[in-house]
Design brief:
The protein is mainly α. Helix content is 78%, strand content 0%.
Length: 108
């Protein structure tokens, strides 16, 4: 069975939101782990060097997650444009600022 344009649009919107939420949850988990590691170091009076390499790797993982979120936002924007071009999405007047444009895309 094939999908209609309406069903495809709804599924893509749902899946994009789930992806964005999953990336946000991963970023939050990475931040919480970093906080726990640092608090454990302080509370146990461990030397500052203790776990430093692990923290560097955790920070790099966080940077990768933020980069992934950026790419997901760009994909969302691109898919929104495709939906508008195909006529699958109702267009609204062009936003006046980048923040307004982003909010409209996220709300879509």
């Amino acid at each position: 069975m094939t999908m209609t344009s309406q069903v495809a649009t709804l599924r893509i919107e749902r899946d994009l939101k789930q992806l964005e939420n999953a990336i946000d949850a991963a970023i939050a988990a990475q931040c919480m782990l970093g906080q726990t590691l640092m608090q454990a170091r302080i509370d146990t009076d461990a030397p500052a060097i203790s776990g430093h390499v692990a923290m560097m790797r955790l920070a790099k993982a966080g940077q990768s997650l933020v980069a992934a979120r950026t790419d997901a936002i760009r994909a969302h924007e691109d898919l929104y444009k495709v939906g508008v071009e195909r006529g699958d999405l109702v267009t609204t007047p062009k936003p006046s600022s980048a923040v307004e444009r982003f909010e409209n895309i996220v709300a879509a």
